[in-house]
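hi! just following up on the protien thing from before. the input was this:
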Amino acid sequence: MVTDEMGRKMSIPDNLKRVVSLAPSVTEVIFALGKEDLLKGVSRFSDYPEAANKLPRVGSYVHLDLERIVALKPDLCIGIKEGNPIAVVRKLEHLGIPVFAVDPKNLNAVLETILQLGKLLGADPKAHTIVSHLRARIERPRPIFTS
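and the predicted 3d structure came back as:
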């Protein structure tokens, strides 16, 4: 059992094979984790990295196409807490498709999202490497003036 950012407990299949991303930021994290082979569909504006443009579209993250999502037969959809329409999320869940919500509302939450998705998608070591690298860049002192 896992708990998403909406506080919902859900069971996620151990051996995920088909994931649909419901937001561009989620798509980017999945690619960064090296798990793009799991992606079977993405939201309309998922255009980074370039390879995301080759994946089927499931509508924009605020206007999701339920039929397209269901046709892709996902094991899991990953969406945004404050963006994806809750009515579509509930319909997907009613059809037996879990929807894991992340909430990347600030920098720390983005780092947490990377860790959550790494654990969820079986890329925990890669997620920790990415987050460590980002934290080091954030904390690196920079000169205010250069001569």
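The longest strand covers residues 76-80.
The two ends are 55 Å apart (CA to CA).
cheers
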